[in-house]
Design a protein that fits this description.
Structural class: alpha/beta
CATH superfamily: Isochorismatase-like
Largest sheet: 6 strands, parallel
CATH architecture: 3-Layer(aba) Sandwich
Number of domains: 1
Number of strands: 8
Helix content: 10-25%
Number of helices: 5
CATH topology: Rossmann fold
Radius of gyration: 16 Å
CATH class: Alpha Beta
């Protein structure tokens, strides 16, 4: 079975959000074409779902500013603006994304003491979201991954899919994703490619 994982296509990561990814909203029409393509038997999405005062927020650390390095539970942590707080507009999936066609929305980042870039587990690798078990139980053997942001949550999700779903083939859809910095995107793509993740464009899916 082939599945599509849409990573964090939320208001908070699009223009006007609290942690906007440059041109983050440009992934929405591409994601919708993929959803409508009929190429996937299963469509899942991840959703950053932070409680107020999450430990990854700079506002939770005295004297710290967003995008400074700090510490969370004794480990280095990039400190972010408050974003995707539960039950806020910032946390909602982009309104133009065809969310009615999504079979499962996996929330992540709920533990205030550890961040969760990956859709599959927290950054400490101690707690699983359960998404890998769900996809394995559904018989997923091919997983295409895209969304926001390439150099953080998308990369970590793609690599964890390889590590946590036995025998799965993972592809990263480049034009259905955007990253925070060009350098970060380049490094993320090289890391994914080195792990055996295929880098493709949406047309490769749509024309197959």
């Amino acid at each position: 079975m082939r599945a599509l994982l849409l990573v964090d296509i939320q208001n908070g990561f699009c223009p006007g959000g609290n942690l906007p990814v440059p041109d983050g909203d440009k992934v929405v029409p591409v994601a919708n074409r993929l959803i409508d393509s009929g190429k996937y038997q299963l469509i899942v999405a991840s959703q950053d779902w932070h409680p107020p005062g999450h430990g990854s927020f700079a506002s939770s650390h005295s004297g710290k500013q967003p995008f400074e390095m700090g510490e969370l539970s004794g480990k280095p942590q990039m400190l972010w603006p408050d974003h995707c707080v539960q039950h806020t507009v910032d946390s909602e999936l982009h309104p133009e994304l065809k969310a009615d066609e999504i079979d499962l929305i996996q929330q992540k980042g709920e533990n205030p003491h550890v961040d969760s870039y990956s859709a599959f587990r927290d950054n400490d690798r101690d707690a699983s979201t359960g998404l890998s078990d769900f996809l394995e139980d559904q018989g997923v053997t091919e997983l295409d991954v895209c969304g926001l942001a390439t150099d953080y949550c998308v990369k970590f999700s793609a690599i964890d899919a390889l590590d946590m779903i036995p025998g799965v083939k993972v592809r990263f859809i480049e034009d259905a994703s955007r990253g925070i910095t060009a350098e970060g995107v380049d490094a993320a793509i090289e890391e994914m490619r080195a792990r055996g993740i295929e880098i493709i464009g949406s047309e490769q899916v749509l024309e197959a």
